[in-house]
Specification:
58% helix, two-stranded parallel sheet, two-stranded antiparallel ribbon, mainly alpha, 4 strands
Amino acid sequence: MIYHLFQYLESIGVDFPGIGLMHYLSFRAILAAVTAVLTALLAGKRIIRWLQSKQIGETVRDLGLADQIQKKGTPTMGGLIIILSIMTGVLLFCDLTNVYVLLLIVSTVWCAALGFTDDYIKVFKHRKEGMSEKGKLVGQVVLGFIVGLTVWMSPDIVVREKVEAPESVERVLETETTVTTGRYVQEDVVKSTKTTIPFVKNHEFDYRWLSPVKGAWGWYCKWAIYVLMIVLVITACSNGTNLTDGLDGLAAGTSAIVGVVLGILAWLGGNLIDSNYLNIMYIPGSGEIAIFMSAFVGALIGFLWYNSFPAQVFMGDTGSLTIGGVIGVSAVLMRKELLLPLLCGIFFVESLSVLLQRLYFKTTKKKTGVGHRIWSMTPLHHHYQDKKAPDGPVLIPKPVPAQHEAKITVRFWIVGIILAVSTLALLKLR
């Protein structure tokens, strides 16, 4: 809103020192991040008190963890703090006519509603399982199709495959209004199913290569494959973050690290000079995603003030599903979804541990009558905690001595930082 106010003032001839700063992505990104942090810090305490007054406390399952029972009654649904903080920064400083921003806003609200429904059922309906897995999956898949079909159909979502900027162009070309004029672009924008992939010459992979047919039907087939990939990515990211949310500060801190990298990638992909230098596809308008991700990271940092060990509030599914949805959608819009297995390695491994554990347990139970486990408990972060011995054999026994929750969280953060740096380094590896 402030961004559009400044745009309006310029259009009617109003001029005062600093009015042109709103053209710069860097300035608006900083303001969005600071606004989100302050909103989380100021509103967080009041939201926590309101949750306590409504007796919206965490329902703790008996997982056999020694310190798990201490969390009983801690306010949940703290994802409301994250959502409020994100939307405050975004609505004030993003270009609300930008298709990428609009899709991210829709995704945030959609996933928030999905997670809120799940938490509502758990807290007020006293059903510990919350929404059914199928119900969540349907909601995530529908969002994936909304985003995927928009990427396919919208004339505003395009890429420029070959761009060159003369050496005389100054660094001030970070402003979105300048880099999209087309004066320094050799080719017209195109609708493309190309995405970024590491270790190859041009960092590009085209989904049309997976199409079994050519010609007119091949055109439809490649877009169908791309849309299905988008659905898969968004669903996987949303569920992966949800599974990671099991220790104080784990999901929020890890997601903040991922958000920083996605913001940097959005900045580079939306800037003519940087994308040309790094030989990555230039996506006009995608620089606005960097501002959204700045608000996203700011909201998570502010939330960590209350969510770090010992947590005063939990994000619940209201927060975790929203965070995962934002990460998945932003990666898809920037054509960086194939980098997520590395960048979101923590989420990927957590999800994989649950899938492998279930598969191994069912397989061994069918063969021997007694279900075996790979780890003593999943998601993987619970494997390292102090807990009672599980029923049945375990392939990888629990570590001795068990690790404190805060130590596990910080070590996961460190791994997340290593993965984040590795993801950025891939931009120069061919």
